[in-house]
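Q: what sequence does this backbone want?
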């Protein structure tokens, strides 16, 4: 099995998220003057660390099940002088108790749904219900999740779950948030440039591996196949159809 460089070498965030949009989300969370911050599915912790930098009175907890990403998060926290305020744990968010003044959950709703292998529609309601329990009244949540930006085609759904009902449109997601105990402060969606940057960063590790190994290396064909399949899935499939909405929510 080939070994690739960590994703955080080529990606700033583990989602299609520009610097400008990230600043907007961070400002929203920090303006609430949180003392506790939770990042569900934190990856290598970049968003959580930036929130803590913007809210110097806060302590944060990042949760993820990927040990490589968590190791990167801890390293980044030490380098930026935040190790005493940022903790990162390989823990299932379903067993987290307590309340947090500010919560981020981006692309992690599947935690509260059925197993991914069952290829069921994303259970936004279960995620929003669980997240509402973690946020006190007037607490803030940044909820980022997949949506259909355009009507799904067979080519778009094939590399995903194969279902046209896997995601909802952005308006339906807003309705779900309001029905599950949140007031919607702002709604925006990742644009194509953010998606292209994210997808390029995701596959850059394959290009780097191929550049560093001989063309006849025993794993080269496998790596070329991984890159080709991802490019086909995105450029020939869900580009411009699968979207990601960012909701700035206040618990009410």
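A:
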């Amino acid at each position: 099995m080939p070994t690739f460089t960590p994703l955080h070498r080529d990606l700033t965030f583990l989602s299609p998220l520009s610097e400008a949009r990230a600043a907007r989300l961070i400002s929203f969370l920090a303006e609430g003057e949180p003392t506790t911050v939770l990042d569900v599915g934190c990856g290598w912790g970049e968003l959580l660390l930036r929130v803590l930098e913007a809210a110097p009175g806060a302590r944060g907890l990042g949760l993820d099940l990927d040990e490589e990403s968590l190791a990167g998060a801890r390293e980044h926290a030490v380098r930026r002088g935040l190790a005493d305020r940022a903790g990162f744990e390989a823990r299932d968010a379903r067993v987290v108790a307590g309340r947090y003044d500010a919560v981020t959950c981006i692309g992690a709703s599947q935690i509260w749904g059925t197993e991914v292998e069952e290829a069921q529609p994303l259970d936004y309601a279960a995620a929003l219900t669980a997240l509402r329990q973690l946020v006190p009244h007037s607490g803030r949540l940044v909820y980022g999740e997949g949506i259909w930006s355009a009507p799904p085609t067979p080519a778009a759904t094939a590399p995903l779950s194969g279902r046209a009902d896997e995601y909802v449109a952005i308006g339906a997601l807003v309705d779900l948030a309001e029905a599950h105990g949140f007031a919607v402060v702002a709604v925006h969606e990742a644009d194509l440039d953010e998606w292209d940057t994210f997808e390029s960063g995701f596959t850059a590790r394959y290009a780097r591996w191929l550049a560093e190994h001989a063309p006849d290396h025993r794993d080269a064909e496998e790596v070329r196949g991984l890159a080709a399949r991802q490019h086909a899935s995105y450029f020939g499939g869900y580009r411009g159809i699968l979207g990601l909405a960012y909701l700035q929510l206040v618990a009410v």
